[in-house]
Design goal:
The chain has helices at about 15-30, 40-50, 65-75, and strands at about 10, 30-35, 55-60. It has about 90 residues and is of the alpha/beta class. A three-stranded parallel β-sheet has the order 1-2-3, sandwiched between helices. The longest helix is centred in the middle third of the chain and has 13 residues, at about 40-50.
Length: about 90
Protein backbone atom coordinates (compact mmCIF):
# COMPACT_ATOMS: atom_id res chain seq x y z
CA UNK A 1 0.00 0.00 0.00
CA UNK A 2 1.25 3.46 -0.82
CA UNK A 3 -1.29 5.79 0.75
CA UNK A 4 1.47 7.58 2.66
CA UNK A 5 4.17 7.53 -0.04
CA UNK A 6 6.25 10.72 0.14
CA UNK A 7 5.23 11.40 3.74
CA UNK A 8 7.32 11.26 6.91
CA UNK A 9 5.86 10.01 10.19
CA UNK A 10 7.47 10.56 13.58
CA UNK A 11 6.28 7.96 16.10
CA UNK A 12 7.03 8.44 19.79
CA UNK A 13 7.29 5.43 22.07
CA UNK A 14 7.95 3.28 19.01
CA UNK A 15 10.30 0.77 20.66
CA UNK A 16 7.40 -1.42 21.77
CA UNK A 17 3.67 -1.90 22.02
CA UNK A 18 1.27 0.42 20.25
CA UNK A 19 4.07 2.74 19.15
CA UNK A 20 5.95 -0.12 17.48
CA UNK A 21 2.82 -1.40 15.75
CA UNK A 22 2.01 2.13 14.58
CA UNK A 23 5.51 2.64 13.16
CA UNK A 24 5.35 -0.66 11.30
CA UNK A 25 1.91 0.05 9.88
CA UNK A 26 2.85 3.55 8.73
CA UNK A 27 5.91 2.11 6.98
CA UNK A 28 3.74 -0.52 5.29
CA UNK A 29 1.53 2.31 4.04
CA UNK A 30 4.57 3.95 2.42
CA UNK A 31 5.68 6.54 4.98
CA UNK A 32 9.30 7.06 5.90
CA UNK A 33 9.24 6.55 9.68
CA UNK A 34 11.25 8.21 12.43
CA UNK A 35 11.15 5.67 15.27
CA UNK A 36 11.68 7.49 18.58
CA UNK A 37 11.94 6.30 22.16
CA UNK A 38 14.18 6.43 25.23
CA UNK A 39 15.01 2.73 24.81
CA UNK A 40 17.80 3.20 22.27
CA UNK A 41 18.83 -0.41 21.67
CA UNK A 42 15.26 -1.64 21.23
CA UNK A 43 14.27 1.37 19.12
CA UNK A 44 17.23 0.83 16.80
CA UNK A 45 16.14 -2.79 16.35
CA UNK A 46 12.61 -1.70 15.45
CA UNK A 47 13.94 0.72 12.84
CA UNK A 48 16.22 -2.04 11.47
CA UNK A 49 13.27 -4.47 11.27
CA UNK A 50 11.27 -1.92 9.29
CA UNK A 51 14.20 -1.43 6.91
CA UNK A 52 14.72 -5.19 6.61
CA UNK A 53 11.09 -5.43 5.47
CA UNK A 54 11.91 -3.08 2.59
CA UNK A 55 10.66 0.17 4.09
CA UNK A 56 12.38 3.37 5.22
CA UNK A 57 13.02 4.08 8.89
CA UNK A 58 15.54 5.72 11.18
CA UNK A 59 15.84 5.75 14.96
CA UNK A 60 16.21 8.90 17.06
CA UNK A 61 16.51 9.02 20.84
CA UNK A 62 13.65 11.08 22.20
CA UNK A 63 12.33 11.81 25.65
CA UNK A 64 9.04 13.56 24.86
CA UNK A 65 9.42 15.72 27.98
CA UNK A 66 12.73 17.16 26.68
CA UNK A 67 12.36 20.06 24.23
CA UNK A 68 15.88 19.56 22.86
CA UNK A 69 15.07 15.93 22.04
CA UNK A 70 12.12 17.14 19.93
CA UNK A 71 14.48 19.42 18.00
CA UNK A 72 16.92 16.56 17.39
CA UNK A 73 14.18 14.12 16.39
CA UNK A 74 12.95 16.27 13.51
CA UNK A 75 16.42 16.81 12.02
CA UNK A 76 17.27 14.62 9.02
CA UNK A 77 20.05 12.10 9.59
CA UNK A 78 23.54 13.33 8.71
CA UNK A 79 25.05 11.89 5.52
CA UNK A 80 27.77 10.20 7.57
CA UNK A 81 25.37 8.34 9.88
CA UNK A 82 24.41 4.71 9.31
CA UNK A 83 20.76 5.80 9.38
CA UNK A 84 21.16 7.96 6.30
CA UNK A 85 21.67 4.90 4.11
CA UNK A 86 18.14 3.69 4.87
CA UNK A 87 16.58 7.12 4.68
Amino acid sequence: MDRLQGRVALVTGAASGIGQATAQRLAEEGAAVVVTDVQDEVGEKVAAQICDAGHRAVYAHQDVADELDWTRAVQPPSPSSAASTSW
